[in-house]
Please model this.
Amino acid sequence: MEEFIRINMRSIQFDFPPANPVTERRMNSIVISPVTHQYLDPKNLAEKVELTGPFLTVEKDGRTGLRAASVHSRVDFPAHNLNDDCGFLTMWVLAADELTVWQTPQHATQQLEPNFKETLLLADAFEEKASYLDADGNRQLGPFRDPNRAHFAIAWSANWYPQLLAKMHPYAQYEENSQGESAVTPNLKAVVSAGHWHVQPGCWYQLAFSWHRSESEYRLFVNGVQVGASMQKSLQHFPSASGLRAGSTVWALSDLKFYGGKATAAQIEELYDEECVSPNEEVQKVLRTIYLGENLPSVNFTPDASWEETLACSFCEPEDLGHFQAQGFPGCYSITSEGLEIRTPSKWRNSAEKLDISQGYLWTRQFFRGDLFLEYEFMPLKEEGLSLLCLQAAGMQGEDFMQDYPLRIDGSMQLVYGENVRLYHWEYFREMDDTYFELASHGLFKQPWCKPMAYQCQPTRLAQNTWHKLQFVQEGVRLRGMINGLVVFDVEDNGHDGCGPVFRSGRLAIRCMFKTHLRIRNLRVCSRSTGETLQPLAPAK
Model:
C-alpha cells in the first residue's frame, strides 16, 4: 500500500553518533565492515533525516521506503563517510515506472526539464535549472535535480542507453575539458556505470557502491551482483559535501547504510542475502545471466542450401581491400599474411578539428538484400579499444545511401546514431574508458533511434593474441549474435514500436574507435531471399 505523508511541521534532525560506532561482525565466516551511518530505517523512515515537502511511504513485499510526492520534496542526510579513502554504501530502491531510453518529442522540448532523462537517486548537491515557462512566457528556475555539478551522485540516465552511474566529480559524464577533449579520451574522472539494467517497476533492488580513492577503484552492484567497475587508474576525484540529499518522484528509497573499510564482492553478496526480505528468483536469474554470463546457450550456425554466398575474402591478399570503401582514418588498414590489421590513433581527435580521422569504417561495396549471415575471425592485439559492426545499413527509406549520396569521409560515431542512415549496430569488442571490461560485453542497438535491443556479458574477457569467431544471423525479425559459439544475443525486432521498420537490406561495415588494434580474417557473407524475386531493370536507351 502507499500512505501519503504531508510534512507540514518543522522536521526534527537527530544528532548522529560518531563514525565507526559498530564493530565488524561475521556472517557465514565473512567479515562484514562496520556501519558508520544509517538512514531510512524501514521501521522509522523519518529518524535522523530532515524532510521537506510531501512524501509517500511505499510498502511492497515486506519492505517500506520513502518516495517524494512532489518535485519540491527532498530528504537531507546529515553525514556520511564518502570522503574516507575507502568504504561502501548500500540502499534499497524501487522504481515506480519502466525505465528505458526515451525518445524526446521535438514539439515538447522547449518546456521539458533540461535533463529530464536523468533521474537522481542520491547526491551531495542539487543544481536548479531554468526548467519551465511562467504565465508571462519567462523562463523560471525550477527544482529540477541536475546530477552533473554534484561532487557525488548516484543517478539513472536514459540518454544514449539506459545506465546506472555513480560519480565522485562535478562534471557531466562526457563533458569536454579545456583542451577540447571528451571525457572518453581518456575518462580521467572517478565514475562507474552499469549499462542496460532492466529495471522492473514495483520491485525492490539493493544497490551497492564501493570506492577506494587512492586505488581508483569504484564498483557498482545490484542485488549482490557486480554490474560495473572503473577500469582506469589515476582517476580524478573530489571531496563530497558534508551532507547528502535525495528526493525522486520515480524512486522509493529504503535502508541507506554506509560502511567503513574496503569492500569485497563476498561482503556485498552476503549483505544482500541478509537484508533481502522477499527474494525474486527470476530477477536474480536475469541479473546473473546478463552481468555474469551464466548459462548462456551455444550455437555454431552453418548456412544450409537456402543461403547464397555473396562475399568471401581471407583478408590476406592485397586485392581483398578492393571489396571495401574506407571512411575516416585513412592509414589504419593493412593487409598481412595473417589477415587485415587495423590500428587506429591512440587519442580521440580534438573537437576543434572539423573531421574525425582518429576512427574508421570499412564499408562493403555490396548492398545486401534479404536475410543475412555474416562471420569472421578477429584477434585483439592489445588492451583497450572498441570495434563494432554496422548491419543492414541503408538510407532512411531503404535506399543505398553510399550510391545515392556523396561518400562520407568523417570517421566519427555521428553516422551510426545521428545521420540519415538506419542500421543495427553491434559492439562486440568493448574496452573503452567508459565501459566495463573485466568481462567481455556486447551491446546491440537499432539506429538512429538509439533503441537498445540487447546487452550481454560473457563469463570471461576476450583473450588477446587469440582468434575469436564472430557470427551474426538475421532470419526475418530474429537477430542472433555468437562469439566462439556462445550466444550473446537472440532477439526479435519490431517494426511497429515507433523505431522504424525491420531492416532487411543494406551495406555492412566494420568500425573501430581510436586506440584499437586488432586483426580480422576469413570474412564470409551469405544472403537469403525473403520471398521476392529481384532483378535489375536494364536502363532504357
Observations:
- The chain has a mean pLDDT of 86.
